[in-house]
Amino acid sequence: MNELSQLFYLHGIGYEFTKYTGEQIFFSEDTRKRALQCCGVDTNNYNKIAQLNYKLDVEPWMQLLPNVSLIEQTDFYLKVKIDDRQLSQTASVSVEQLGIECEFTNLDDLIITGEYHFNGVRYIEITLSLPSIPTGYYHADIRVGEQHASTEIWSVPERVFQVEDTKKTGLSVQLYTLKNNERLGIGDFSDLLTLVDLCCEQNMDYILLNPLHLLFCNMPERASPYSPNSRALLNPLYISINLCEDSKNNAELAKIMQSNEVTSLLNKCGQFINYEDVSCVKYKLFKALYNHFELTASKPRRDAFNTFCDKHQPTLQTIDSQTPLFDYYLQWQAHFQLGLCQERSKKGGMAIGLINDLAVGCAGDGVEFKSQRSLFADNASVGAPPDPWAEGGQDWGLPALNPQSLAHNNYSFYRSLIRENMQNVGGLRIDHVMAIRRLWWCFENNGQRDGCYIYYPFEHLLAILKIESHINQSIVIGEDLGIVPPEVKHALSSSGIFSNSLFYFEKQNDGDFLPLHELPPQCLLMIANHDVPPFTGWWQHDDIAIKQQYHLIDDEQSTQITNQRVDEKTRLLRFINATANLTLTIHSDAKSVYRALSQCLAGSDSRLFALQIDDLDEQKYPVNIPGTDKEYPNWRRVLTHTCEEIFANNATLLAAIDSIRKG
Q1: Report field, pTM of the whole predicted structure over 0.85
Q2: Domain interval for residue 38
Q3: What is the structure's pLDDT at 1?
Q4: What local confidence, expressed as pLDDT, does residue 386 receive?
Q5: Can you tell me the distance from the alpha carbon of 558 to that of 560, in angstroms, rounded to the nearest whole number?
Q6: SS3 label, residue 454
Q7: Which NCBIfam families does the UniProt entry name for this protein (predicted)?
């Protein structure tokens, strides 16, 4: 192996991958060099390449311990690297936080788990058996003879946090789409409280939310929750004015509520959210809330605010603002109201409660990127290789994290990101979970679009998910749609992480849908999500008509897609009729087919089954059309009915599904 090839390997630059067709694709050296250059490596400086190889390959063997030491709770072994001439010396380990002091006098008797030869010296890795250590992160000191080192021990449970092993039913919802009881144009935490109560009445176990990440208040039309300003901060537009204590006896607020601007918004009931209008009005109301807090807040409330700011200081200080205390106040209120919703869900009997959603990346001009700039690669964005739904591959335009930089400060960035997104919820869905193992990078190479896979410190990122899930009592769902390496599927399954299955894509090799008994048990099963048409629209071909309406496809493409859709529907009917012993036909109405399909899938062994509120509302318009930005109003479509009306209209179906799942 030459030095450049060695650096490709050590730096996580991929060599090949298996395409969805089964074809093995190899990346050219030129492509791999460009990926290294995005990581700040001068691929023409061979002295620098040699230095990096030494740092990544040799240097770790010269140190007793790395900065982070993973200790699996199956054995509690601490792995230490020594020169084999040190086997005659004694070793000691101290973990002061836990009162642990261990002595090892016979290093010769210890298990050797690795070796490395350099300059005629044999270095070995030995395992020191430690007592049981609780889940978490701990500072440890070690001595071997006269050599001393420190490390941060991560005590890693075998699996992520688990709930009772029974079938769970829930609802998936894009929060902003809910009909707003306050009539301010966007679904908020008050509407979520209402939805929680309705779900509890139907014995549901969870509500899966869209990412609640901070977007851009100065550019409110940037509405995608999957291209956020910051993934560690919440979107204030979800704050309910009426739920806020500072709305009481607030003369300034009352005056603004009587203004023409607010009155106009209150009287609007369009199909799509006007974020400019909503943001303008809500931020004026927020200012009135904050002013009231400043003038009238009691000492306990001020203390609560200060405690929140202290707890979340590293995240809050990333906010780029002329009025930081106002923005901190909004984050406080958003956290408080989200917490109210989770508390209500648990009191109402939900096994899990709210499930948050973590986007795969952040916007390249947002506060997350700017505050962590040194962690990101240069001129590289993340996306996906060619697949059946995007033959040209995808570039999501989100900046790529440099895998080598992630280890900075003992992975503090990723730890904080996961911890913040597990606050006030009972579960976390991780969008494109394959990113903890590898990500497809997109970059320009000699004036042409290029890309390859980059590998990440999988073992450490998975360990963080396991630890944080237990600390925060949160289940973990990994969205694993697309090309997933076998080792990722195995690791997620053995770690107790739920996979995510869309029934639309669960097919056999011949194109027929999988039989019910073959649907995976350790998964979140859904008929559809935000990236595919709602069921009614799909059955009635409304999504095809919408694409024509917005000039996304031409007449010839429409005919081709329609013919494919008819075939898909025929296969779906074959699945439903065989599973439920029904006689539905291609002429059956969408509602009847949806209800039959939902009850079929409720009978699967999948531990998590989610209905989509858009489907219960019989929506025709998709909430998002992948591959579009300005062409279609993505992330803006609201529901037609209130939550109460939707549940009343589907009471029989919901009761039937509850009976099937609990039976």
Answers
A1: yes
A2: 3-58
A3: 59
A4: 77
A5: 5
A6: strand
A7: malQ
